[in-house]
Amino acid sequence: MGCKVKEGDLSDVVILVHWSYNAISVVEEKEYFADIYGATGIPMPSGDDFTPYEDLTKEQVVGWLEAILDVPAMQLQLEEIIELQINPINVTLPPPF
Q: What is the sign, positive or negative, of the torsion defined by CA atoms of 16, 65, 10, 52?
């Protein structure tokens, strides 16, 4: 996670979270996998909502991301990636010569 070393009286303030989101689907005993990734800026804490870096939990950081990111759109994107693996519309073929 990207952190600002000092922000007023606070230290190690998270300002950027690198994340990945994935899905697995099994169709006719074959497994398909899709993932997307990115980095999301986190707003500066205000008031008493600051958690020291060493006390952060995965659940808390995921909550921040879920509040910012469009999770349903991400889920749809993963479904589309898997659908294209199951039913491709483009293929790479070797030269016929």
A: negative
Write down the residue that tokens 């999301």 correspond to.
40
> pLDDT digit string (tens) for 22-59?
999 999 999 999 999 999 999 999 878 899 999 999 99
Residue 79 is encoded by which pair of tokens?
């479904």
Residue 65 to residue 36: CA distance in whole angstroms: 14
Type of residue found at 79: E
- The sign of the CA dihedral 68, 72, 76, 78 is positive
The answer to whether 13 and 45 are in contact (CB under 8 A) is yes
Q: Which two tokens stand for residue 96?
A: 């016929």
pTM of the model: 0.83
The dihedrals phi and psi of 24, each to the nearest 5 degrees, come to -130, 135
At 43, phi and psi to the nearest 5? -60, 150
How far apart are the C-alpha atoms of 27 and 31, rounded to whole Å?
A: 7
